Amino acid sequence: MSENVIVTEAKKKSGSLITANLALEANRNIFAVPGPLTSPLSEGPNYLIAAGAMPIVNSEFENLL
Predict the structure, then answer these.
(1) I need a surface site. Which of 9, 20, 31, 39 has the fewest CB within 10 A?
(2) Which of 13, 52, 10 is nearest to 31 (CA)?
(3) Residue ranges of the Smf/DprA SLOG domain (predicted)?
(4) Where does residue 50 rank: exposed (0-12), middle (13-18), buried (19+ CB within 10 A)?
(5) Which secondary structure element, helix H or strand E, spans residue 30, and what is its range?
(6) 3-class DSSP state for residue 18?
(7) What is the reported pTM?
């Protein structure tokens, strides 16, 4: 598993969220791209951000990697 996990789109029950949870257990960095509250594909990233993932909102995230 890589040092950083980035979730761009995912439903709340998806393989991406399983990977993010495994990364959390392995003390990896988790980043997520926020999206519209009405989009099913934003449920996963928005959930991760609410749980403490670092949001990616512009190109400045490259400095965090």
Answers:
(1) 39
(2) 52
(3) 1-59
(4) exposed
(5) strand 29-32
(6) helix
(7) 0.86
Residue 40's contacts (CB-CB under 8 Å, 6 or more residues apart) are: 11
Q: Are 24 and 30 in contact (CB under 8 A)?
A: yes
Cβ-based burial of 3 (10 A; exposed 0-12, middle 13-18, buried ≥19): exposed
β-bridge partners, 30: 5
**For residues 34 and 55, is the Cβ–Cβ distance under 8 A?**
yes
In tens digits, what is the pLDDT along the chain, a chain of 65 residues?
Answer: 789 999 999 999 999 999 999 999 999 999 999 999 999 999 999 999 999 999 998 877 667 66
Place of tokens 């949001």: 55
